[in-house]
Amino acid sequence: MSTLLLITSSPTSIHAWHAFGLAQALKQKNESFRVFFYQDGVNVANALQWVPDDQRKLTSEWQKLEIRLPVCVSAALARGISDAENAQRHNLQQHNLADQFELVGLGELADAVQSADRLIQF
């Protein structure tokens, strides 16, 4: 069974952490799954997001999973998150997309929804 985790919650939300926990469990069980970061969920891909030393950083936790981390490009740009290519295209002075995350279009979400047996939104 293939699962799509649609993460729309901010990284400061407990729901975003639950999404990560489920992804960890699915990976440990070798279950087929994909993730997609959308709406406020894209903030997890902001390399400039600061987290106090006594707290875990959700961005780093996702990076440790070593899976594909697609992020909606429109939602990211609207929230001030850009990769180098889009920074140049939109005349932004810098980029701040965290390593291992990649900006993609909504067509990728449509494909993921179509191919998934179940979709879980956080």
Number of domains: 1
Helix content: 25-40%
Largest sheet: 3 strands, parallel
CATH fold title: Hypothetical Protein Ychn, Chain: A
N-end to C-end Cα span: 19 Å
Q: How many beta-strand runs?
A: 5
Strand content: 15-25%
Strand order of the largest sheet: 2-1-5
Using the 3D structure, state the CATH architecture. Answer: 3-Layer(aba) Sandwich
Residue stretches low in confidence (pLDDT < 50, at least 5 long) are: none
Q: Summarize the helix and strand pattern as letters.
A: EHEHEHHEHE
The dominant shape is globular
Count of alpha/pi helices:
5
The CATH C-level name is: Alpha Beta
Please identify the structural class as seen in this structure: alpha/beta
Question: What would you note in describing this structure?
Answer:
A 3-stranded parallel beta sheet has the order 2-1-5, with helices on both faces. A two-stranded parallel sheet has the order 3-4. α1 links the parallel β1 (2-7) and β2. It has 122 residues and is of the alpha/beta class. α1 (14-28) runs parallel beside α2 (58-65). It contains 5 helices and 5 strands; from the N terminus they run βαβαβααβαβ. It is globular and about 45 Å long. It has helices at 14-28, 58-65, 73-78, 84-89, 106-115; strands spanning 2-7, 32-37, 69-72, 101-104, 118-121. The model has no long low-confidence stretch (mean pLDDT 97). The protein has one domain: DsrEFH-like (Hypothetical Protein Ychn, Chain: A, 3-Layer(aba) Sandwich). One of its GO terms (molecular function) is sulfur carrier activity. It is found in: Cytoplasm. It comes from Acinetobacter gandensis.
